[in-house]
Write a structure and sequence with these properties.
Length: 782
Amino acid sequence: MISPSRHVTFSTFSFFRSLSLLFLLALLAGCSSTKSVPQGDYLYIGGDIKVSSPYPETDTKALEPELTAAIRPQPNTSFLGMRPKLWIYNAMGGERKRKGIANWIKTRLGEPPVLLSEAHPDRVQGAMINRLYNNGYFSPTLEHTVDSTTKRKMAKVHYAATVGKQYTIQQIQFPQGNDSVSIAIRETEPQSLLKVNDPYNLEKLIAERLRVNEILKEKGFFFFDESYLIYHVDSTQNNKVNVYVRLKDTAPAKALIPYRYKQVSIYTDFSLGDSIGDSEAPVQFRDYKYYPDEETFKAKTILNAVFVENGDLYSRKRHLQTVNRLMDLGTFKFAEVRFTPQDSIGLDGRLNADILLTQAKKKSVRAEVQTVQKSNGYAGPGITVSFRNRNALRGAELLLINLVGSFESQISGDSARSGLTSMEVGADAEMHVPRIISPFNIRIASSMYQPRTRFSLGFRFINRQEFFQQNSFNFEYGYSWRQYATTELQINPVQVQYSRLLNPTPAFQEELAIRPFLARAFDQQLIIGGNYRLVYNTLGIEGRSHQFYISPGLDFSGGLWGLFYRVKNGQPANPEFPNTFRGQALSQYAKFDLETRYYFNITDKLVLATRFLGGYGLPYGNSNVLPYIKQYGIGGPNSIRAFPARSLGPGIYNPRALQEPGNEVSQSFSYFDQTGDIRLEGNAEFRFPLMDPYLKGALFVDAGNIWLVNEDPTRPGGKFSGDFISQLAVGAGAGLRIDVQFFVIRVDLAYPLRDPTYPNGGRPKSGLFGTGVLNLAIGYPF
């Protein structure tokens, strides 16, 4: 659901009065932090560590963060020296029992004081000694002091550690036996994480066991486990150690031999509680036993996602790849490979592999009523009815059919543009086939994810009552796949879009007549080409301080068809003599888009989020302007929030300054003009908790604009030039995010700091910061 936005002007006095109130509350919070601290105890405000060594070569600074992580407990949450959660706890009665909303506020939004008596410095010292041993410092000494003030009732613990030289590895020896597993382990030695002269480090020893286990799992050792590997470590003189990698004597015999598949069977209708031995006779497909038959799923299609075969050595990668691919088909709720050991043959073990698949519900229908908000400022109620079939052609093909309808009105802040209405109805269908359909036999066997071929067909009818009606059709054919969890490639070599203008009003025709560039943008809306996009996304990986989203894309139209037309007719492409297809002028352009996001997670609560949007569309041949549906707009709740949707650009062009007084059609038409071929936009937002996890705050700044590639006399100042920096619009503000679990309600108050339509990059002179714009939306802007 796309977010609605509203725009409201606020006075500067109200803004600063709110800030003053917050500052006063902060002072009160600081004064009452120790109100609930028991007599004779202290409010624990944290600890620190200082590491020293008599040996100058010892890197004591590198040890301090490691030892700091061992300090417990964590003090009360603080922000700019204040402790708002502790203040709420005290304000709601502290340790006294409360009922109703007061108890909810105290337990959910507040937190009790963390006391010095809970710190237990002796235990913390023990944890620090363990960490030093794990890093090769075998003879450390530790002590601590408590820094407390009776008057403030606060205390801090200072720890001090003294360490000697770090032990390093002198010799590494792997198992020396001639059995299968010892030989396999020795073969991994060239890639070992343990190196002679490296510092002794317990985490690296643990990682080495995991590495060996991973390799053995790819060599058939199904029952092997990293716990069967142990280390014997002998210390020597001069701070050296010898490391001996050994197998446990208690390791079971089945863990020491590799296993091969004896029989692979597939059950496509398995349910919890079923017994696989009771199944009817299977279909024999190649070497596989396929249950129950092919009336529901074609065996060939399912086996495109299976990477285990009779006679192969067990491989955990192929095992997990099979499960991932089968689940990625989207037609099964559960996928499991169940292994059963069989009698050994020679030095190898044997496994039967039963692939058990539980089907998801095949068909579903869903209706959704929603609020539609578009970048052109239209908003209103809409309805979408969706039909889904997860196995349309017995090959796990996903068929999606959507019927959409909406009735919208202009809610722009400009009164001349408010009240305009638009109706839209349409239908689209998509077919996702879980394989690559091409003249060549392509099977991407290295990925954990299922490649897909996608077909899309759609129709839209739009009735903008004051202007025109429009029919549009689109067809797309392409491929998508993920080689890794963070990377997705989308290739659509066939893209056809056609829009036809119907029943334009006389006023609309008059406006187009005086705007030839815009008229061409509406006329040349036959697109025959392709588009391509790469997505690199680490946002879903938790625990990272730095997260990225990078998505470059290319969009082309008319290249091959224009070449064909030129060869056929012996005539170069030219806007005056356009290439046509059945009388319709063909759009010719090349367009590049880039979206990047970077999130710096300062802590798990404080985040600096940034985004950059860039785009460049180059019309050529037939076209001197991009098709209208491919042009850029800027402004609004998910863009530059200090300006309404599509109220900026291109460049320093100001349609309001050129409007004829009293000509309401010309004024309401102005937002059609505010599109461009080039886009530059940057956003930065600092997010922080207020009453975590339900209420969060943000401070933000947005900047950007759009421009034209070619000069348009009807839009003076719209062409891109060397002084584009001075033409950037800038806005800043603050916002609240209300997390209600299912979605986030966003309230942003933004003020324009620079408006490119004002002389010398000025701004409206209403109040200290100008006219504030209030954006109400669902979800984060990026």
